[in-house]
């Protein structure tokens, strides 16, 4: 069974691609899942590292509304610079 919890566990274990696929499947079943949307944006953005502008993360940054989105973006930035 593909759940947010399982995807999160995969992500924490470094299995980013597997987690991304689960998040995408969750969105297919429930397009309103904000947690899955944020995770897909974050993990998709992590695939592309600089030197080119990451357009997905740029769009995510421009459209951020919730505190959880700001937190996710901050985490992405920290991971990108380390």
Describe the model:
There is one protein chain. The chain is built from 5 helices and no strands. The radius of gyration is 12 Å and the shape is globular. The model has no long low-confidence stretch (mean pLDDT 79).
Features:
82 residues, 74% helix, mainly alpha, globular
Can you describe this structure in just a few lines?
The protein is an all-alpha fold and 82 residues long. It is 74% helix and 0% strand. It contains five helices and no strands.
Radius of gyration: 12 Å
Q: Biggest β-sheet: count, sense, barrel? A: none
Number of helices: 5
* End-to-end CA span: 33 Å
Q: Helicity level, as a percent range?
A: over 70%
Pairing-aware structural class of the strands and helices? Answer: mainly alpha
Number of E-state strands: 0
Order of helices and strands: HHHHH
Fold topology:
Layout: H1 4-12, H2 16-29, H3 34-47, H4 55-63, H5 67-81
Helix pairs in contact: 1-2, 2-3, 3-4, 3-5
